[in-house]
Amino acid sequence: MTRLLISMTESASAQALPTASELQSWLQSLGEQAFQLAVRILFALVLLFVGTRLIKFLLRRFKHSKLHDRMDPGLATFTESASKIALYILLILILLGVLGLETTSFLALFTSGGVAVALAFQGAVSNLAGGVMILLFHPFRVGDYIETTELAGTVKEINVLYTVVVTADNKRITVPNGTLTNTAITDYSAETMRRVDILFSAAYDSDLDMVKDTILQVALAHEKVLRDPAPAARLKAQSASSLDFQLRAWCAPDDYWDVFFDINEGVKRAFDEKGIVIPFPQMDVHVQS
Length: 289
Known about the structure:
This protein is about 55% helix and about 15% strand. The protein is α+β, with helices and mostly antiparallel strands. It is rod-shaped, with a radius of gyration of 38 Å. The strands form two sheets. A five-stranded antiparallel beta sheet has the order 4-3-2-1-5. A three-stranded antiparallel beta sheet has the order 6-8-7, covered by helices on one side. It has helices at about 1-15, 20-65, 65-70, 75-100, 105-110, 115-120, 120-135, 175-180, 210-220, 255-275, and strands spanning about 145, 150-160, 160-165, 170-175, 185, 195-200, 230-240, 245-250.
């Protein structure tokens, strides 16, 4: 019985310990796998280097192509940003395949986690949708002067998630696209003409026709005031201490402030030359003894 137990123990020990040939085969297999992994990593690094250079080259060629020049500036910027993201995602998937990782499993994991990612980045998804809406419906374009309830300025860039606006005093404001698509926007550059409304006051004893003619002469003398539609000056209101005249003149959107300031200064000089009094609030006090 004892001999039987010893024989069984020696047999089990012989089966548990690998033989020299098995150990050599295992080491050889491990070396081959390590060599294959090293080759894959080296190839992936080369592919990463070449891929990033190729993506930059393609984006640079697109930026200097005739198609880019013919596209709307906002759409061109949006297309460039979206293409860059898509190309880098494609490069990452190719690198995963080269390294031997299952891209289908990665895509399945990415899809299953899409809901959680979308919930975590609700603002980014909203801004992305807002950028698409801006490019599809064009509430404004690059170069337009816009105004919202919170800001006013010239649109410089329309990116995937944000729009860059530069104010009149040269402040750069980055606005989320989702915010712009959910607020009222005034686009001062959308039309080819813009009306300048200026209010002038004259004393009650002034000649109405002379005041209106004086204002119109100054407006018509300005080279940036359009002749069609023609400017008009009319009595708007009889205020407590003055007669208020309204001038309405049309000009190009870019000439608005030049026309506004020049006419204001010109009418003041013309009133002084013709003796038209610009009244100021006053009170007559009668003292009885």
